[in-house]
Amino acid sequence: MKRLIPIFLLALLGSSGLAAAADLTPLATRNQSPLVQIYGLPAAASATVLAPQQNAFSLTEDAASNNIDVSNANESLLLDGETYRTTLRLRHGLPGGAEIGLAIPYVVQTGGFLDGFIIDWHNTFGLPQGGRKAEPRNRLLYRYQRGDSTPLLLDQRSAGLGDIVLTGGWQLPSSSPANAFALRASLKLPTGDADKLLGSGSTDLALWLSASHRVSSISLYASAGALGMTDAKVLRDQQRHVVGFGTLGAAWGPLSWLALKLQIDGHTAFYNGTSLNELGGRSLQLNIGGTLGRSGGTQLDLAVGEDILVDTAPDVVFHLALRRQF
Predict the structure, then answer these.
(1) CA 244 – CA 164 distance, rounded (Å)
(2) Mean pLDDT, to the nearest integer, of 69-88?
(3) Share of the chain above pLDDT 90, in %
(4) What are the residue ranges spanned by the domains of the chain?
């Protein structure tokens, strides 16, 4: 909980009244699985790039609870722990409909504190626990065994700089002001410690197209692209080098200062050579939340993410983002 406090404090700074500023852009979410967040899978982004000389700042916190325990005759995968990812993003608009940016993540792998809360939540609403009640509470253990080998084992808390990402965007022409299209790219550098699951050890390049269509207070948006990766240090023998990804979502502004959002993020498998769908299957995540718009262009995003394809992403992810353009 201590890691979430700074964002709430920042959100209160300069808080005059709410204004007509809640935007209808995507939530900057993605799969926060400890074996996926190490790669350069892009978070969903707007189909409109910044205007020349315009700047954007965001501070994002993603708190993910992982609970997967599966096995077959030759393999076993146990992911029990919590991943906290704090990301500082800076973007700058350039002439000619382009923008550049930088994302600096700080990653923590820990046993955390959310197990009791999630168990109580599931009990209250009659939801299945998925084996969580049988596991030790607030444990950190990420382990993958294959035959007689253990190619992945992390059972000690780790924290530090993740993989830094350089971003770019180019506005594409549109025949209607209701439509927007942007070509976006990102380059992830191997600055995080792969042995501690703070990074992958690979250099990743992503290229994708973002699109949106707005009618009055409703915006529909989507994106699709591909991610290419060099050799990683995590499960290197089973790593895929090309992954497809995409987003589909809708935003509705019922009030001038509030936007409600429903979004699905997905990607193809990051690993092969396994019959465990939890490791080698495609993934879909559902994010439900919204944006509060404050005066001066400040935005606060809040969302909760769930794994639609069960156990291919964390059980639950709490997403908060403080954003401002200037």
Answers:
(1) 21
(2) 96
(3) 81
(4) 5-325
Closest CA to 285 of 313, 311, 304, 261: 313
Supply φ then ψ for residue 181, to 5 degrees: -140, 135
Q: Is the dihedral of CA 145, 69, 281, 38 positive or negative?
A: negative
pLDDT tens-digit map of 211-224: 999 999 999 999 99
Phi-psi region of 5 (alpha: psi -120 to 50; beta: other; left: phi over 0): alpha
Q: How far is CA 117 from CA 8, 63, 308, in A?
A: 20, 13, 21
pLDDT for residue 297:
78
> What global pTM score does this model have?
0.89
Give which of 145, 216, 180, 144 is closest to 49, Cα–Cα. 180
124 pLDDT band (50/70/90 cuts)? Answer: low
Query: CA 227 to CA 241: how far, in whole Å?
Result: 8
Asked if 32 and 300 touch (Cβ cutoff 8 Å), the reply is: no
pLDDT for the residue numbered 158: 97
Q: Enter the tokens of residue 196.
A: 């501690």
**Worst-scoring range by mean pLDDT, 117-126, 243-252, 271-280?**
117-126
Please give the average per-residue pLDDT across 56-71, as a whole number.
95
**Is the CATH number 2.40.160.40 carried by domain 5-325?**
yes
Round to whole Å and give the CA distance between 240 and 160. Answer: 25
pLDDT of residue 131: 59
With 0-12 CB in 10 A as exposed, 13-18 as middle and 19+ as buried, what is 264? middle
Judged against a pLDDT cut of 80, whether residue 114 lies above it is answered with no
